[in-house]
Amino acid sequence: MSDTKTNEIIPFSEVIKFHGHSCPGIAIGYRVGEIAIRELLSSRAEDEELVAIVENDSCSVDAIQVVAGCTMGKGNLIFKDHGKQAYTFMNRETGEVLRISLKKDVTETNPEFARAREKAFSPSATPEDKAKFIKLRDKATEDMLEGPVDELFKVESVELEFPEEARIFKSIKCAKCGEMVAEHRARIEDGNIVCIPCFEDYSRN
Fold first, then answer.
1. How many CB atoms lie under 10 A from the CB of residue 172?
2. Closest alpha carbon to 22 in 33, 32, 11
3. Topology agreement, domain 12-157 and domain 168-205
4. Do 141 and 23 touch, CB atoms closer than 8 A?
5. Phi/psi of residue 111, nearest 5 degrees
6. What pLDDT shows up at residue 166?
7. What average pLDDT values come out for the chain (205 residues) when binned by 10 residues?
8. How many whole angstroms separate alpha carbon 200 and alpha carbon 188?
């Protein structure tokens, strides 16, 4: 990928502020968002010009929202529950699509950190165990932020059909609970409009 672009990246401190703490997970998302911005845009997305498809719901996604400007509310963050550290970014203006996947898990590259984390979250954890975990967590975060891109990630251009742009749907009242529900998420039950939680699924299993 080209490294000649001088795109503006939001500081990592802003991601920590949004997420609540520093950890390797948001460092992964920060690097992923950084790659996407440098390769596909001149700055974070203001609208839906950049679409992110994330395949997990880990800490990394918080960083991607801050760095890349892809959010659920704007409709340019799409979640697929695959449990994979893989992220696809799509530039609607240029048609470019970039898939970024983590080559090795943090616990694989730093087994001492993995052991410290397990110990720190055990019922018998001591203050010393927790302090050691925080120290190793910070080191793992730093390694993720500073490591060479080609050692940490597989970055490839791919072909993928672009999703439809986000649409605003009318809200209607559920006949059972009385709460408002977007019409494209509503169900029909006994001739009445109901929300998904109120809808009684039919099954013969």
1. 14
2. 11
3. no
4. yes
5. -60, -30
6. 84
7. 59 97 97 96 89 97 97 95 97 96 89 92 94 95 95 96 89 96 94 93 65
8. 10
| Residues near 27 by beta carbon (within 8 Å), at least 6 away in sequence | 12, 63, 140, 141, 142, 144, 145
pLDDT at residue 205, rounded to an integer = 62
Residue among 185, 183, 186 at smallest CA distance from 169: 183
Left if phi > 0, otherwise alpha if psi is -120 to 50, otherwise beta: which for 155?
beta
Residue 58: closest CA among 89, 79, 33:
79
Sign, Cα dihedral of 26, 149, 7, 75: negative
**What values do phi and psi take at 56, rounded to 5?**
-155, 170
- CATH (one of 3.30.1330.130, 3.30.1280.10, 3.40.50.300, 3.30.420.10) for 12-157: 3.30.1330.130
Q: Using alpha carbons, select from 35, 161, 149, 32 the residue that is nearest to residue 90.
A: 161
- Residues for the chain: how many in total? 205
CATH number of 168-205: 3.30.60
Side-chain-facing half-sphere of 98: CA atoms under 13 Å = 23
- Residue in 27, 86, 29, 20 with CA at minimum distance from that of residue 53: 86
Q: Taking the model in full, what pTM does it have?
A: 0.85
For the chain, the domains span: 12-157, 168-205
